[in-house]
């Protein structure tokens, strides 16, 4: 008989393992593992062996942080040699941020890492957790894609390309600018997943700390004083959510404020408010003016990927120039390089 693959499950919290209480769903220690023990399908002959490591405390993913990302990455690094693949059980609210952050922190990943969760707890009727976890385990063992992936509602995505699009539907995630990697239907269909041999080399991980970053969503009538105040705070980077392909109001006051901030060494990244498509500051005069003011194009990265990338890059000892360059460089498949 073929030896079974071994999968490590890092259980951080989220709805998947929650229990109903009089104040709504709450994470309860031991509850998820107990529920799984009573589900024979997880022990089917075709399923891999798995070990669940429950974090303490279990959290709602609203409480995730760069410090917690570092703990998670170190945990996986410590167990890297003992397992064939890794699953992270996580709340959906910030799942795309964690998937993006881990993609950057893991600097030499050659085994599958799949992050998943659910909209309804595993123990509840009509839960999506059973399918999400069963498929994640099955895929990690039998269809490994050696990168940080996110599995939800029968689709395996590149983690750093995802965003949460639905607050209460089962199709909670989309990958607006990159195709689905695998589709779980009657068969597991490979769409854009790159198959590579799983090798047991050492996993190198990078440092990640909390950095001073802000996001500003442009809208008609935005008072520039608000932006000015934000840029006066001890800020390292600002993500500017602009219109369409990266356009902003053609107001000299705005451009002057941005130019001064970027001259002071604040990184200003231009991301579109649109879900799909890419920033191209050469497209319109309004966008061109931003690039003249020192604003960096976020290309087709999700806001989650940009935030994670900024936390990661600013945690390395890199010069402003190098960080600026790496922001627009494809590090882990998070952006479509302009010549692709
Ligand atoms: N579906 C979920 O997991 C939502 C939950 N609030 C969380 O993100 O932890």
UniProtKB/TrEMBL annotation:
SUPFAM superfamilies according to UniProt: Glutaminase/Asparaginase
Catalytic machinery residues: 15, 92
Keyword Hydrolase: yes
UniProt xrefs under InterPro entries: AsnA_fam, Asp/glu_Ase-like_sf, Asparaginase/glutaminase-like, Asparaginase/glutaminase_AS1, Asparaginase/glutaminase_AS2, Asparaginase_C, L-asparaginase_C, L-asparaginase_I
Domain spans labelled Asparaginase/glutaminase C-terminal: 213-326
The keyword Phosphoprotein is annotated on this UniProt entry: no
Signal peptide region: none
E.C. designation(s): 3.5.1.1
Keyword terms of this UniProt record: Hydrolase
Family matches, as CDD domains: L-asparaginase_I
Residue ranges of every copy of the L-asparaginase N-terminal domain listed in the record: 6-188
Family, per entry: Belongs to the asparaginase 1 family.
UniProt name for this protein: asparaginase
UniProt organism field: Psychromonas aquatilis
Name of the encoding gene: ansA
């Amino acid at each position: 008989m073929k030896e079974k693959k071994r999968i490590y499950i890092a259980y951080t919290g989220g709805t998947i393992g929650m229990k109903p209480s009089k104040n709504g769903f709450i994470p309860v220690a031991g509850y998820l593992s107990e529920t799984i023990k009573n589900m024979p399908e997880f022990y089917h002959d075709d399923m891999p062996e798995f070990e669940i490591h429950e974090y303490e405390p279990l959290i709602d993913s609203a409480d995730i942080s760069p410090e917690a990302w570092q703990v998670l990455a170190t945990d996986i690094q410590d167990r890297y040699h003992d397992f064939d693949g890794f699953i992270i059980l996580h709340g959906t609210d910030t799942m795309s941020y964690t998937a993006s952050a881990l993609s950057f922190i893991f600097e030499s990943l050659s085994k599958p890492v799949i992050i998943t969760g659910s909209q309804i707890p595993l123990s509840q009727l009509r839960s999506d957790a059973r399918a999400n976890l069963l498929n994640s385990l099955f895929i990690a063992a039998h269809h490994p894609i050696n990168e940080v992936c996110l599995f939800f509602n029968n689709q395996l995505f590149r983690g750093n390309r995802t965003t949460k699009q639905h607050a209460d539907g089962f199709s909670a995630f989309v990958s607006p600018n990159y195709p689905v990697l695998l589709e779980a239907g009657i068969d597991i269909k490979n769409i854009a997943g790159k198959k590579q041999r799983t090798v047991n080399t050492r996993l190198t991980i990078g440092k990640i700390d909390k950095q001073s970053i802000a996001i500003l969503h442009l809208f008609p009538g935005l008072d520039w004083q608000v932006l000015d105040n934000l840029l006066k705070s001890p800020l390292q980077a600002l993500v500017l959510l602009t219109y369409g392909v990266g356009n902003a109001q053609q107001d000299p006051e705005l451009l002057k404020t941005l130019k001064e901030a970027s001259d002071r060494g604040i990184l200003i990244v231009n991301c579109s408010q649109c879900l799909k498509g890419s920033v191209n500051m050469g497209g319109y005069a309004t966008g061109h003016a931003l690039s003249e003011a020192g604003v960096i194009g976020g290309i087709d990265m999700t806001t989650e990927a940009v935030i994670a990338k900024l936390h990661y890059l600013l945690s390395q000892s890199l010069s402003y120039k190098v960080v600026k360059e790496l922001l627009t460089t494809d590090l882990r498949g998070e952006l479509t390089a302009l010549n692709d």
